[in-house]
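User: Assemble these into one structure.

Assistant: Restating your components, then the assembled model:
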Amino acid sequence: MAIFFQALIDGLLTGGIYACVAVGLSLSFGVMRLFNWAQGDLLMMALYMAIFLIQGTGIHPLVSILVVGPVMFVIGFFVQKFLLNPLVIRAKEREPLSVLLTTAGMSFVLSNLATFLFTSNSQSVTTPLTGRSINIASMFISTPKLIAFVVALGLTFGIQLFLQKAEWGRALRATSQDREVAQLMGMNNKLLYCLAQAIGFACLGVAGGLMSPIYAVSPSTGATFGFKTLTIVVLGGKGSVPGALLGGIIVGLVESFGGFLFSSLYAQIIVFAIFALVLFLKPNGLLSKDRG
Amino acid sequence: MKKLIATILAIVMCLSLVACGGPSGEQSQEPNQSSGQEGGETIKIGVLYPLSGSTATAGNSALWAVEWITDYINNELGGIQSMDGAKIELVVGDSKGDSQVGLTEFERMVNVENVSVMFGFYNTAVTNTLSQYCIANQVPAIATNAVGDEAFSQPNDYVFHANGCNATNTLFSNQRTEWMREVIQPMKKFAYVYDSADYGRESYETALANMEENGYEEIVGIPIEAGSADFSSQILQLKNDPEIEWVQPSMNMSDAILFVRQMKEYDVALPIFGNGGGFLQADFIEQAGDAADYVFSTSMWFPSMWETAWDTDFAQTVMDAYYEEFGYDFDESASCAWLGFWCVWDALERAGSADREAIAQAMAETDISGEHYATLLSGSKTVKFEDREGAAGVMVYNQNFDTPVPWACIRDGEYRVVWPEELASQEYEFTWPIPSWDER
């Protein structure tokens, strides 16, 4: 029984990390109806920032979030303003292919740039959280993953609250529902897109800081998380912030139990079987209110 | 605007066609005649390593050694003496660790660049594919690292494997357990955590095939995916089986770092006998931090082995140059490339020709010993390519056999060689059983 609970805890905590990465993507998709194909590579960039910052200054990984998060926010704002907004505004279709292709190009540029700047060697840092765990009734709870899980819950709740209550949040929701009408009502779509993308990037900055005690980063890190993030967002419901959390936890749990009971390879097959089943039964994802 | 774009595209397409014209013309030539030229010019050598992707650290390390040697041959030794001082020209390719990409690069090097020799490969999957193409195209090649048996299971006159101490899985599977049998008693059950790519899978299958011969009663196979985000379920499997005595992981460096960190997090203090790969890449120790302490690893090369070089000053010069480039010590990939590329030089000097058949013949007759460049920075003190039957009756061809593969234990941020005795670190007293995480 202890093993069952251990696998449960592991799955939940790993799901929390996935959710951290997926929440931002879900938000930007919800508002702009576009997938950022470079999500994994942007996470890689945030991880590099966090690791180099911690290596260089010796600060605590949680403090690094306060630097990497805002820096990523600013980067996200300007990427949207100068690179993606011209494409989104010009595109007539609801989910423009040009943006998908541009972010795919961005993904290649980032991974190659990382290879050029940092070589293909892995980079990691040993922090006060690295290798730490809490032992409760013979069960081990990874401290950095527990923190990531709590932060993921906080991020989801915070963003959801922002979307529901804040004026800017409501504006984002209005734009996500009908950008033309929202614009007619006097909303500045371009600025709102920048805000959504900036928040998405900031979430990756937070995830980078939280993951720095756990993972080594290399230019191929984006590939590990990129496709998985897309799966989680689609599974949870495109554009649904709580859906990203749910999707992350589902994938984390399946990987944990599947890996323990069968093998990690079968676990991936199960993840994609569930993914296919959800797409078949509920094409817009588990928590999406979108009727397509 | 559209007209402008169309014009630019048309120009680009025309330029592409012009660019394609050159190679296709060259392709029609006989490869052997077009490669290199006798009479003091250049001889082309195709060097293929994973220069990007998950094994790029090793590939770039090996490439550094090849480039250093080339520079030394061309400038210090005056080129290939038997070919009137012909200079070596490297044609470098990046396989990305992928056999299809590797094959594309191979075809470019062999058919377009007309190289005389192929060198490197590194990854088992890439070597499996390219060894077949080398044999089919009669291109002499020296493969380094790549310890899978499959690539070398066919009798042939073209593909040679110049690794140092251990040659392929089937050969070192028994060799490496020789020391483990002395230390772990009784030695009944262990877990093999392997990435499901060719190298890991084949290592696991070889261990399974040799189980009885090596005296194990059971091996628990735990496959993983390279680039995993989490190993908690695999570690849970280890934790849940009290009969498992040690764990033998086979994975790349970023996975190895995550694995040892999570072993510590979950307080699983099973001895880790790393199956090379990520556990012996030079910056593994630094990056894994104290989680790397007491990890064992085999390697064809550990930095302290430079002390056994026949010219320690020369060895130190090379190691210093390497350190300056990478910021860590000369590693296994560089050592294998060192041994292998000097074997290429040795064969070229004896062949006295850029002809592929002549070079292949010279490679087959390699017989290196004593104070030869090849053995300077290698655990191997002789080089001779032979055929041999390994464990479970598997035959492998054109392999270099020499000293047993050493084991080292990571302590205080360094690899301390613990076996064999003649290479063992003098400063380290071997500790067994290894302490729990709390006691480390």
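Chain B is about 40% helix and 20% strand.
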